[in-house]
Amino acid sequence: MIFTTQKISDSYWKVSIENPPVNVFDASFSKQLIILMDEMEAEENLKVVVFESANPDFFVAHVELLNITDFPKGTGKTGLSISWPDIAKRLEQAPFVSIASIRGRARGLGSEFVQAFDIRFASKEKAFFGQPEIGIGSFPGGGGLERLHLLTGKARALEIILSGNDYDAETAALYGWVNRAVPDAELDAFVTNFAERIASFDKFAIASIKSIMNERAVLPKNDHIMETQTRFFQSLESPESRQRIKRLLDNGLQTYGDVELNLGKHL
Amino acid sequence: MIFTTQKISDSYWKVSIENPPVNVFDASFSKQLIILMDEMEAEENLKVVVFESANPDFFVAHVELLNITDFPKGTGKTGLSISWPDIAKRLEQAPFVSIASIRGRARGLGSEFVQAFDIRFASKEKAFFGQPEIGIGSFPGGGGLERLHLLTGKARALEIILSGNDYDAETAALYGWVNRAVPDAELDAFVTNFAERIASFDKFAIASIKSIMNERAVLPKNDHIMETQTRFFQSLESPESRQRIKRLLDNGLQTYGDVELNLGKHL
Amino acid sequence: MIFTTQKISDSYWKVSIENPPVNVFDASFSKQLIILMDEMEAEENLKVVVFESANPDFFVAHVELLNITDFPKGTGKTGLSISWPDIAKRLEQAPFVSIASIRGRARGLGSEFVQAFDIRFASKEKAFFGQPEIGIGSFPGGGGLERLHLLTGKARALEIILSGNDYDAETAALYGWVNRAVPDAELDAFVTNFAERIASFDKFAIASIKSIMNERAVLPKNDHIMETQTRFFQSLESPESRQRIKRLLDNGLQTYGDVELNLGKHL
Known about the structure:
3 copies of one chain form a homotrimer.
Chain A: E1 3-7, E2 12-17, H1 27-42, E3 48-53, E4 58-60, H2 85-93, E5 97-107, H3 109-115, E6 119-130, H4 144-152, H5 154-163, E7 167-168, H6 169-175, E8 180-182, H7 184-199, H8 203-216, H9 222-236, H10 239-251, H11 258-261, H12 263-266
Parallel strand pairs in A: 2-3, 3-5, 4-5, 5-6, 6-8
Antiparallel strand pairs in A: 1-2, 6-7
Organism (chains A, B, C): Flavobacterium crocinum
Protein name (chains A, B, C): Enoyl-CoA hydratase
Pfam families (chains A, B, C): ECH_1
């Protein structure tokens, strides 16, 4: 079980992520996330869900690069691929609030995973963010080219995506990548208070706010999301990309160690 | 007289707001604001108007909740309700610059009031902001769902509106809700210098900058503003909302005291 | 030679700007920039270009105001004026990354010059920014009314353009005008590391990221850029503008001295 759901009440759920050794977003992650999404949508009293990681060093490392063919295929109810883009859009459109409480690394698809949440709070000392795809001759394929600039503006999104660098939580907060950086010792209490507060309000008001906001704010377009995802997988097939991926895997990618901990440096 | 206008010159006016005990935005506020807006538009040499509060604890508390039926009815020259949305759009389109110099609380319609100004400066120690509508089972109905995300981005607007929390001026500045937070002891001199500076420039240039910017930047749509306002008033009619409003009024809402001072805590 | 190009490799160029005494953007600047732009586009291996100033007090002061009729005329391949708007758009669309490493003043067209780069890094102590056009009865004519609000949001863009004030690098970073402010002693090493890093990645990935982002993010419209430029030059013809320009020139504009160093104060 990658996702352990603690149902604090009908209206407030907490989900812990654990996929050793570094919480990669692999085929099992995708399949179990689809089941969890169905469960969240089915609980009509649900008001708020908090996602956190059981691994203090990794929130979600990145997409699994060895077995990408195992990911679930086909499109979901939003018309997007069920492997992930469909889930992202369902989170956006859900009548409940999704919150990522981030400790550890959230890079690549891990960063794009948290971009799909309504709200992101990050440990000031222990959260790190990156879009390292350029290091394997590619680019963000799971929404980063569509959502990150809506959070940070175009210039900072280009800086992040073109450099593949790791960003600490304070810089991420300055850039708008996360809502705010909270001192690590205070993060859990802060997020719990925030979530309990929302759980005390009316479901009708929560759902109305999200649905009205979704009509007012700029959201990514489905065809952009799909086009980028297709081009991302194509880019991984190039000899140059294969070679860069092989070198990183040989050096320890997807195992717990210095390459995963300091990926920005190793690109 | 809720608004006291000090005409420092033809080109520079200062307006002080006083509607005891907590500066609620009530029917009289609305009616007198319409007259003031007509006066500002009629002064063809006007270049800059600064609004401040005579009450150091409250800029504008929120909408009056007991007598909402007294608000002026009908649509104004912009096609929007004259009670407030029409004024907001006229401020946006005016050939003069509107500045809010904020001390004290600006919550709900008070927050939406300042969102309609061109520029917002806030006392670092004494200004507080919130959209507390969720606490009465509702949502911002005076432009907050249309304008706040243009200032803060969607994720932070959702955080603010879904939590109903109070925000201090430094967080508001980080989020873009206000242009900047200025130490309270420096605020008046800072705003005066800023306004006098603008008053020294050409009216033609000022009006050109605003009209060109209004064609370049994303602005709220009239039908969005109107739809949200209608849904806001409908939401107040629900039994759940009536009960939440009654409880807050019983505890001291709309009187000077702890509920108004620390509304975020009491929701 | 206003631009000195150091070709560190096929993929990484560094350009130093020197146009004494204060690096004005004059007709020669425009003509040589067109040649440089052609060179950059012709080098198919180019991945990253860094622009910096040889003058620590001035990055680019502003447009030359005495001989504006000497600027090259006609439209370039983007359909925009070749004097500058065409270059701005070509930088945006280029398959390489453009970085401004800013020391000294970047005001007016100097500010608009750096707004056209993909990424802006500024010396925390020595970089200053402004849009002083209002001080000559005019408004930004080289893209500032189209690009600045995309970086800072509308409210802060209005504050900057309506005040004509000088902004330090930390405020510019808070507002999003620049990506970040870097301590002056660290700026060169920071930018060099950043540029070398990008130069180590694949050209295909770099070009893909820029072209995909250009389809996803909001960009200025050609007709807006052209309309504002036309109106800018018209505004300079008014008696009021001529008088304000003459007074500034009499006081030392376009020479090295207090007016240029502290232009915000002198408007």
